[in-house]
Amino acid sequence: MKTYYIITFGCQMNKADSERLSFYLEKNNFILAKNQFQTDVLIITTCGVRQSAEDRVYSLVHQVKKKNPKTIVVITGCLSERKDVRSRIKNKVDIWLPIKEMASLIPKINNKINNPLIVKDYLSVAPKYESTFSAYVPIGNGCNNFCSYCVVPYARGRERYRSATEIVREVKGLLKNGYKEVVLIAQNVNSYHSGNIDFTRILTKINDLPGDFWIRFVSSHPKDISSKLIAALGQCSKVCEHVHFALQSGDDEILRKMNRQYTASHFQSLVKKIRAVGRKYKPELPVAITTDVIVGFPGETKKQFLQTVKVFKATKFDMAYISQYSPRYGTVSAKMTDDVPKLEKKRRENVLTKVLSQTAGENNKYYLKKVIPVLVEGKNRQGEWYGKTRTYKLVRIIGAPINNLAGNFVMVKINKVRDLTLEGTIMAQYE
């Protein structure tokens, strides 16, 4: 039997793609190898959002080919169709595989394999889930937004969505197997549509399925967050009190250059509406708002950056993924002058990180001495159990029993709060 190994960089969608690749390979008689250096086939699911992720791919390919030249290296994900990437490592990559062409992988590896699994659409392939209690469920692929800094529309193509019937069938299968958390994912999850079913409707359909489980979804685009969706966030009891949607900048001119199709004030109004609905329908937990932001976009002045700082202070994010702008090959912004010095980008990142630390710390004070549900995920390096709240807060569980708690809901009393984490003890466990 041939062996395979998959390394995944980037977002939840890439992780879901890798899970489907695993199933596809194992159905075609491949077995999982011990590591990337002892495998017949190495698949790297790549991310092109940041230069750092891209550089890690170059390094990894070099290391693998140096230690085992016979390994068949397959590049899929966001870098698979980039001409500059192909040119740079063409002598070390054996197969370039846009994920939508997953069905061609086996023939490319071995033209005479017996009874290969034939697929028309890679999203129709069942995944080999990494977790036994929390699963990513892709509801679509691709993007139509063409933000000026982003490679996703070029790497994944235009938006395509799975039928509601297929999505619900996958979720039902997960619940039948005891899964406790379902995460709906797409590049722009809330633009979902299939026939007359939009994202709010598919969210409601899944919420109405029997069972004790949580629903999350990522990532949302502010321009597609409707009043109907906001109302559903409050009315759907299984939908977690956590919404992630990208701000990217607090300055309207920079947002225009990014082609984001909303203003900073519109973003802030959405936050207010979401939190108001949360207070009305689910007052026991404040809705956590998390976001993405880019500092040092071409032409961003210090005054414009201060607008982002202003929005950060006003919005009081629970978490923010702050990245320094780096030009992405083939995008509109790559043709702009990258005129913010590296040191200044770093300074701006540090400023926002400090604000985030303050606001997230203030938000976390709400949890002190409260007893809240936590889904246990595993153990940390110190041997302590940890998990997440419905609001996506990381919780360290102190003095928990030795028995396996992973995948269980527990009630935890929060005894200590930090900027980005909570700490507590188990009061009860429930199924």
Explain this structure.
The protein has helices at 12-27, 51-67, 83-88, 105-109, 152-156, 164-176, 199-207, 227-235, 252-258, 264-281, 302-315, 342-364; strands spanning 3-8, 31-32, 41-46, 72-77, 95-97, 134-138, 140-141, 160-161, 181-185, 193-194, 197-198, 214-218, 242-244, 288-295, 319-324, 371-379, 385-389, 394-397, 409-417, 421-430. The chain is an alpha/beta fold and 431 residues long. It folds into 4 domains: 3-122, Methylthiotransferase, N-terminal domain (Rossmann fold), CATH 3.40.50; 131-240, Transcription Regulator spoIIAA (2-Layer Sandwich), CATH 3.30.750.210; 241-367, 2-Layer Sandwich (Transcription Regulator spoIIAA); 368-430, Nucleic acid-binding proteins (OB fold (Dihydrolipoamide Acetyltransferase, E2P)). It has a 5-stranded parallel beta sheet with strand order 2-1-3-4-5, sandwiched between helices. A 5-stranded mixed β-barrel has the order 16-17-18-20-19. A 3-stranded parallel beta sheet has the order 6-9-12, with helices on both faces. Strand 1, helix 1 (12-27) and strand 2 form a beta-alpha-beta unit. The longest helix is centred in the last third of the chain and has 23 residues, at 342-364. The protein is globular, with a radius of gyration of 22 Å.
Gist of the model:
The chain has helices at 12-27, 51-67, 83-88, 105-109, 152-156, 164-176, 199-207, 227-235, 252-258, 264-281, 302-315, 342-364, and strands spanning 3-8, 31-32, 41-46, 72-77, 95-97, 134-138, 140-141, 160-161, 181-185, 193-194, 197-198, 214-218, 242-244, 288-295, 319-324, 371-379, 385-389, 394-397, 409-417, 421-430. It has 431 residues and is α/β, with parallel strands linked by helices. A five-stranded parallel sheet has the order 2-1-3-4-5, with helices on both faces. A five-stranded mixed barrel has the order 16-17-18-20-19.
